[in-house]
Amino acid sequence: MSGDILFEVAEKVATITLNRPERRNAFTLAMIDEWVSCLEECRARADIHTVLITGAGKAFCSGGDIDELMKQGQARTPQERKDELVGHVHSIPLTLDRMDKPVIVAINGAATGAGLDLALMCDLRYAASSARFAETYVKMALMPGAGGAFVLPRIVGRARALEMLWTGDFIDSEEAERIGLINKALPDEELMAHAHAMARRLADGPVQSIRSIKRAVRAGQNSDLATSLDYGALNYGVLASGEDHHEAVDAFLEKRAPDFKGGGS
Predict the structure, then answer these.
(1) Quick check: helix, strand or coil at residue 204?
(2) Do 81 and 138 belong to one domain?
(3) 84 in a structural domain
(4) Which pick of 112, 133, 134, 192 has the fewest CB atoms within 10 Å?
């Protein structure tokens, strides 16, 4: 790898760190491809149960590198610009959408434009109190090209999403928590400890139950009630016959902590 993405695995948690702090972790196309490769490895490896994404330095991600992706791209045709997104950037949201494992993002600083959009595609979002958030496309006379127009209204509602997208104004962590953009704002020095603790908690939990819950929530957002109920009943039945469920019942009755063994990649 180039060093723009750091990847490490410890105790069933994979940590992906965006590592261009001198450019506020603005991504290049090569950096995006490395990020996708790390996510695909997380999907495939049975020893990885949870994924944690964060940024190095004072920013989380400022979106695409303005010099490479905008200034140098001005001579390219509309089709070539579209191909940049489809062939590279879109791989992040599409890979995350296929990821059954929990994905947590620790937003250590400013998250703007596509950097914010890619954070919003993760399952849980924790942010440092000093972090700020903005959908800055309009300031570049652009529109979201990485999925922001899809995911943002589903999180904060249509009116709030349009306000953020049309103004490009920053909001702070307190406001982001209030409107549901993030799960929780934390003192800067407590962010990573909190995110790691949640990652470990999920990694040590009943693997198939956690992944089935994520699949059910995702399926339920795109189906009617009857279909969702049927999906839930089917998978509930499968989980109820599994060893993790049996261990959970025994642990409850014996008044002890469960020791989950269920695996699966």
Answers:
(1) coil
(2) yes
(3) yes
(4) 192
